[in-house]
Design brief:
5 helices; 5-stranded antiparallel sheet; alpha+beta; Structural Genomics Hypothetical 15.5 Kd Protein In mrcA-pckA Intergenic Region, Chain A
Length: about 130
């Protein structure tokens, strides 16, 4: 079994904890400014240690995390969830945003199958008038 480490690059930590499917996506999110480490914009090479706070926006949804431990590998989801604890307020906000998005989608007009050019035009006109 590998030795435990006391720190890890933030892009690797996000990848190991399953916030992004690939390390490249994690690195791109960090470089784009979607990730803050201890309330400062993070660089991909910044080291994460237990006790750090990570704020990130993924798919326009906010996450507020506190690092509990450093993972040794990208393992199963329960192993990844044991590496952090999430802020309850951020979870509530995210659930409210998801519910609002679902409600918006329910009010959108439905089409019988794939919309053609004329149906798309009608949908755009309807969205502009709202």
């Amino acid at each position: 079994m590998p030795e435990t480490t006391d720190s890890l690059r933030i892009d690797r930590w996000l990848f190991y904890c399953r916030f992004y499917k690939t390390r490249g996506l994690a690195t791109a999110a960090v470089e784009a400014g979607h990730v803050k480490l201890n309330d400062e914009r993070a660089q991909a090479g910044r080291r994460v240690v237990p006790g750090d706070r990570i704020n990130l926006v993924r798919d326009r949804l906010p996450y507020a995390l506190r690092v509990l431990r450093i993972p040794l590998r990208r393992g199963p989801a329960p192993e990844a969830r044991a590496c952090y604890v999430e802020d309850e307020e951020a979870v509530r906000d995210r659930e409210q945003q998801v519910a609002a998005l679902r409600q918006d989608r329910m009010t959108m007009p439905r089409t019988p199958g794939r919309p053609d050019k004329h149906t798309r035009r009608k949908l755009r006109e309807r969205n502009r008038s709202q």
